[in-house]
Amino acid sequence: MAIDSRKVYALILGGGRGTRLFPLTKDRSKPAVPLAGKYRLIDVPISNCLNSKIGRIFVLTQFNSQSLHRHIHNAYKFDIFSDSFVEILAAEQTFGQSDWYQGTADAVRRNLWHLTDPEIDHVLVLSGDQLYRMDFRDILRTHEETGAQVTLAATLRHPDHVEGMGILKIDRHFRVIDFVEKPDKATLRSLVIQGEDLAPLGVTAEGPVVLASMGIYCFNRTRLELALDNVMADFGKNVIPWCIQHMRVFVHPFTGFWEDVGTMRTYFDVNLNLAEEHPQFDFYAQGRPIYTHPRFLPNSRILNNTDMKNVLVSEGVIIDNAKIEHSVIGVRSIVNAGSVLKDVIMMGQDRYETREEQEEAAGLPLRGIGRDCQITRCIIDKNARIGDGVVITDHRNKPNEDGDCYNVRDGIVLIPKNTVVPDGRKI
To answer: Which residue from 45, 111, 141, 404 has the least number of CB within 10 angstroms?
Structure first.
């Protein structure tokens, strides 16, 4: 009998401190970081679950979780006749535990007691900082057909493009027999397979490929409990290698777009790619939407001689006589006359300023981008105030630095949330 996706728990791992995305994670958890102008990273795995008819979803987090709580509360409401829920499980002190989660496996271990429904026999473990669209019923089908106790989703990559990834080794029956974190070149050669060998799994691929772990795991619930009946802290480093040695572990190859959005460079590149004519990830897929908090904002207004090329524009935006190229403009963003933006991610505002708030902020620039600014390769976080005549230049190939109103990471300038950049400032 096929696995009923309605009888599956999904556990979304909210991640640690998110240091590689700092300062975007200074005041928010990593899954709450904005994406594509209007979404949050957490919306991706939750939407994949809901589109796969998986409605029992837990999100595990411990750092700066307040904004994530608020977003999930506002975005994912289910009626009283539904068994569906999206519930935050934050780290907490108990009589038995008084410290933080020690890793991804430790986080799940401490919350196993929530998985109590006797009708549910399978658990999906997901990451909260990836961009992809997957029907999880496919991995459940692979899990059932192979008789697996654990199934690992893997993306197909060319051997030259797997830096920093964990690679799976399989036998001719597609059973996983080894897992190597960040293999060196010599080891990597032993993990290469031919894409044509995956044809029995319905995969169309050619030439040399490797199977890179996506951090997406399907467990029989009892096997998950057994795998965590120890002190191992991390899935990738500890639990999965142990499972390979002691359980039936199989691979589920995935050929769609997938990207880990855990670093500043990948976050920047993935967002800007969404503004291109043919983005790698398609938010417009019919019948498989990415859900988020409905805001009921007014239409965007593009005024006067504004010139835009390859720009992703969100709701409630006001742009007046500006020039914008290859950029993402977030909700409620305001860009004033004469400003030129290129390769910019602008996150917008949490809410519009009232007249009273503008009067109280007398002497400061209004929220948004002022007049006659020149801004290149920059991330502008929410509620920032960019004064008139501000110049932010391309910082590629320059070292990281922290200024009074900005940070530079991986050659990208970041204007943190609620920051004021005064008139005429050059960065």
So the answer is: 404
Candidates 115, 86, 94, 92; CA nearest to 12 is 86
My answer on whether 378 and 263 are in the same domain is no
Amino acid identity for residue 54 in this structure: I
Q: String of b and e for 202-229 (b: at least 16 CB within 10 Å)? A: ebebeeebbbbbbbbbbbbbebbebbbe
Residue 287 lies in a domain: no
Q: Round to whole Å and give the CA distance between 39 and 219.
A: 29
| Residue 421 CB partners (closer than 8 Å, separation 6+) | 365, 384, 385, 386, 387, 390, 405, 406, 415, 427
Whether this prediction's pTM lies above 0.70 is answered by yes
> For position 269, which CATH number holds?
3.90.550.10
Q: How far is residue 183 from each of residues 86, 95, 163, measured CA to CA in Å?
A: 36, 41, 8
- Residue keyed to tokens 């409990």: 225
pLDDT per residue as tens digits for the range 58-116: 999 876 678 888 899 999 999 888 889 999 887 654 545 546 566 788 889 988 888 88
Are the beta carbons of 218 and 123 closer than 8 angstroms?
Answer: yes
pLDDT tens for 190-236 read 999 999 989 988 888 889 999 999 999 999 999 999 999 998 888 98
- Please tell me whether residues 247 and 309 are part of one structural domain: no
Look up the domain containing 374 and give its range.
Answer: 301-421
pLDDT of res. 231: 87
CA distance 220 to 228: 12
Q: Are residues 244 and 363 in the same domain?
A: no
Residues 248 and 321 in one domain: no
Tokens describing residue 380: 């502008």
Number of domains composing the chain? 2
| Pairing outcome for strands 166-170 and 176-181 | antiparallel
Whether 380 and 341 have beta carbons less than 8 Å apart is answered as no
How large is the average pLDDT for residues 385-404?
A: 96
Q: Are 271 and 35 in contact (CB under 8 A)?
A: yes
Structure tokens at 333: 């963003």
**What is the distance between the alpha carbons of residues 134 and 400, in angstroms, rounded to a whole number?**
35
Spatial distance between the Cα atoms of 235 and 202, rounded to a whole number of angstroms: 28
- The pLDDT confidence band at residue 357, using thresholds 50, 70 and 90, is confident
28 neighbors 75 (Cβ within 8 angstroms): no
- The answer to whether the CB of 57 falls within 8 A of the CB of 111 is no
